[in-house]
Amino acid sequence: MDNEQIIKQFDEIERKVERVIEVYKSCEAKNLELTNKIDKLEEELQSKADVEQRYQEEKTLIRSKIDNLLARLGDLTDQ
What we know:
Layout: H1 3-78
């Protein structure tokens, strides 16, 4: 094998390694983008869960107050 062939093979290997590095960097950037998107969606989901929890608490409180008012009205009509 002469020097020219060896140099060509090394050049080819170098191009392939550079391509692998490019693909790796691209994948790394995409991974970061997706990780950020996941974080954002998790924050939105937590926010919505918090709103839902507050809604349920308000609903329970309102139901309790209505039940108490109905009981008081029932007491008035029983007299």
